[in-house]
Write a structure and sequence with these properties.
- InterPro entries: ArgE/DapE_CS, Bact_exopeptidase_dim_dom, Peptidase_M20, Peptidase_M20_dimer, Peptidase_M20A.
- With 423 residues, this protein is α+β, with helices and mostly antiparallel strands.
- 28% of the residues lie in helices and 24% in strands.
- The chain has a six-stranded mixed beta sheet with strand order 1-2-6-3-7-17, with helices on both faces. Strands 4-5-19-18 form a four-stranded antiparallel beta sheet.
Length: 423
């Protein structure tokens, strides 16, 4: 963002705060269900574990290019920690009014690593009883297919505002490098709101069903704590300070840490993940490393999290020297901060009206229990961000599937809402 650009937080008055609810619903865009599911099958049949997305990036690019959308590759490079090189795919539909809002449609192309417990091809794309099976079918190739066909349908509409489609790499990896790079390179600087088509209900804080709009998410910080004791002969442990034992005491205390609460996001949480330390026989371990997951709610900052852990260390009276830090990241700004989107925001109103138009019911409202690229958009980029995606089961596991009807409904809702929001 240039120095003379309007700050994100001051742009709420730049466009009509009320989406157009007087639209002719018969003229609203609708996707082709068969084409949508055919596309989903094609996507699922391409293995794309994080850091291995070259083939699917090329497929998404070619699919958009064949339909005349002039896509571009947006290169993602992280040479220091992961040595990763990959490509997001970006395309834009230009509206007729430069003062109208710009809507971001974001979906990730990668999956978790292929799990070994499948009793069939994990990339089969098999359809049975309204369910499409495959690694990443629900998380989130169903959502990727939905935004691709919605974007294609919107190309035939006379829109006032722009639509920016970003199909990104490495959401499932340790740093979310694809969307991080979009933000750091300024690709989303002109956007006013975002839709992310992650599977929503299955990872919501409460038990909800589609159609659902998830209006926020907890954040996540990752403690990486160094514990330095004192080595000694293992036959006389009292003469040393066992760093592994002290790290264990600290892990137990952090597991019981009082965390924040939020009326929408619920409670934060802590979860000790790993203790490393000790290697020699008959030696008291002098070093240990403790890693702890900390999910946070709005109002809990990184410095709050650090102060909480340091307070626990002091209260325990450990003999070790303890350095409370956080996981190394490629950039200081790579943090999954929590966020909440106002229920009265024009995008939420547009999506609610579109849900009623497409599904004939009011949407459920909910909040995401974990983290993803939507945190980068909702917190770091300051974009009002809504998660609306198809549901399924067994995400990140063998037997993953997505409900095909949900994929089509999400595509229709997104396309309809874009017309309402953009004018």
């Amino acid at each position: 963002m240039t120095d003379d650009a309007t700050p994100r937080g001051d742009r709420s008055g730049d466009f009509d705060s009320d989406p157009d609810t007087s639209l002719d619903l018969d003229a609203a865009p609708r996707v082709d269900p068969d084409e949508t599911i055919d596309l989903l099958q094609d996507l699922v049949r391409i293995p794309s574990p994080y850091f291995e997305e070259a083939e699917i990036s090329e497929f998404v690019y070619d699919w958009l290019d064949a339909r005349g959308h002039d896509p571009e590759y947006h290169h993602v490079s992280e040479p220091d920690i992961t040595e990763y090189e990959g490509d997001n795919v970006v395309a834009r539909l230009e509206g007729s009014d430069p003062d109208a809002p710009t809507l971001l449609l974001n979906a990730h192309m990668d999956t978790v690593k292929l799990v070994e417990d499948w009793d069939e091809d994990p990339c089969s794309g098999r359809i049975e009883d309204g369910k499409l099976y495959g690694q990443g079918a629900c998380d989130m190739k169903g959502g990727l297919a939905a935004v691709m066909v919605a974007f294609d349908a919107l190309a035939d509409c006379d829109l006032a505002g722009d639509v920016l489609l970003t199909a990104v790499v490495d959401e499932e990896g340790p740093y979310g490098l694809g969307t991080d790079r979009l933000i750091r390179d300024g690709v989303v600087d002109d956007c006013d709101a975002a839709i992310v088509t992650e599977p929503g209900p299955i990872l919501a804080q409460e038990d909800i069903e589609n159609p659902a709009l998830l209006l926020g998410a907890r954040g996540r910080y990752f403690y990486d704590i160094d514990v330095r004791g004192q080595a000694a002969h293992g036959s006389k442990p009292e003469t040393g300070v066992n760093a592994v034992v002290e790290a264990g005491r600290l892990a137990a205390a952090l597991d019981d840490l009082d965390v924040g609460d939020h009326p929408k996001l619920g409670s934060g949480s802590t979860c000790p993940l790993k203790i490393e330390g000790g290697s020699q026989t008959l030696s008291v371990p002098e070093r240990a490393r403790l890693m702890v997951d900390r999910h946070v709610v709005v109002g809990e900052t990184l410095e709050d999290a650090r102060a909480d852990a340091e307070r626990v260390v002091e209260e325990l009276g450990l003999e070790s020297e303890v350095d409370v830090g956080f996981r190394e990241s490629p950039d200081e700004g790579i943090r999954y901060g929590p966020y909440v989107t106002d229920e009265d925001h024009p995008l939420v109103s547009a999506l609610s009206d579109s849900t009623r138009a497409v599904a004939g019911v009011d949407p459920a409202y909910g909040y995401f229990s974990s983290v993803g690229d939507f945190n980068y958009l909702g917190d770091r980029a300051g974009l009002p961000t809504v998660i609306v995606g198809p549901d399924g089961e067994n995400i990140h596991a063998a037997g993953e599937f997505v409900f095909t009807d949900d994929v089509v409904d999400v595509a229709d809702i997104v396309a309809d809402a874009a017309v309402r929001f953009l004018g």
